[in-house]
Amino acid sequence: MAKLELQNVKKSYGKLDVIPGISLDIKSGEFVVLVGPSGSGKSTLLRMIAGLEETTGGKIIVDDEDITGQDPALRDLAMVFQTYALYPHMTVEQNMGFALKMRGMDPEEIAHRVADSVEMLGLKGLEKRKPGQLSGGQRQRVAMGRCVVRNPKLFLFDEPLSNLDAKLRAQTRLEVRRLHDRLKATSIFVTHDQVEAMTMADRIALLKDGHLQQIGTPQELYLTPHNVFVATFLGTPE
Ligand code: ADP
Ligand code: MG
C-alpha cells in the first residue's frame, strides 16, 4: 500500500496545455477511478505518475518521497494497459516470470510468485499455454498477473477492460476490485465508462479538459454533483 499525492502536476505539449495543474491526495489502500471523456488527460496523468512521461510542473509524492523525475524503473508501481503486449513465444508462466528473471530473482522465488499469481487470476491449468491459445479475457489476466508478481504498492490501470465484450467486462471488473483488496494495493483505475466508475470506486475523480471537476465517493458525485458536467456524466438522480 502507498499513499500518493499529486501537487499541482502539469503537462503541456508546446503551447497545448493538456493538464493545467492537478492536485490530488490518494489514501493508502484506496481504489480511485479516474474517469472522463476521451482526450481529457487521463492517460497523460497516469503516464506521468509511472514516469513514462515527464511532468512540466508540480510534484508527485509517494509515501512522502518525491518521485518527480525519478527513473521509471525505480518506481515501485505497475501499470496495466488496454493492450496486453504479451510475449507471443512465451507461455503464461514465462510471461509472468520474465521481468523477475531479468532482475536476477531466485528461480524458486519466481516459481512461487508465479504460482500465487496464476491462482489469484484464475489461470490454473493454462500455465503452459501461449498467448495465441488464450481468449482476450485470459490474455488480459496474464498481463495483470505480470504486474501482480512484482508485488508493487501502487497499481495504475489504463482502461484495461475496454477490449473485452460487455459480459466479460462486468465479470473482470469485480475480479480487478477483488485483486486490489486481496493485495492491499493502492490503485488508480482509468476508464471512460460511468458504470465501471460507479461500481468499482472508493472514490471517483472526474476529469474534463485536464481539469479535475470533482472527487468523492460514487454516492457523493451522484447525489451532490458540483456542476452540470458531473451530473450529466454520471446520470442525475430521479
Ligand atoms: P485520455 O486518456 O483522457 O483520452 P490523453 O491523456 O491521451 O487523454 O490525451 C489528452 C490530450 O493530450 C489530448 O488532447 C491529446 O491529443 C493530447 N496529447 C497526448 N499525448 C500527446 C503528445 N505526445 N503530443 C501532443 N499532444 C498529446
Ligand atoms: Mg487514454
From TrEMBL:
<keyword id="KW-0813">Transport</keyword>
<dbReference type="GO" id="GO:0005524">
    <property type="term" value="F:ATP binding"/>
</dbReference>
<dbReference type="GO" id="GO:0140359">
    <property type="term" value="F:ABC-type transporter activity"/>
</dbReference>
<protein>
    <submittedName>
        <fullName>Glycerol-3-phosphate transporter ATP-binding subunit</fullName>
    </submittedName>
</protein>
<feature type="domain" description="ABC transporter">
    <location>
        <begin position="4"/>
        <end position="234"/>
    </location>
</feature>
<dbReference type="GO" id="GO:0008643">
    <property type="term" value="P:carbohydrate transport"/>
</dbReference>
<keyword id="KW-0067">ATP-binding</keyword>
<dbReference type="GO" id="GO:0016887">
    <property type="term" value="F:ATP hydrolysis activity"/>
</dbReference>
<comment type="similarity">
    <text>Belongs to the ABC transporter superfamily.</text>
</comment>
<keyword id="KW-0547">Nucleotide-binding</keyword>
<dbReference type="GO" id="GO:0055052">
    <property type="term" value="C:ATP-binding cassette (ABC) transporter complex, substrate-binding subunit-containing"/>
</dbReference>
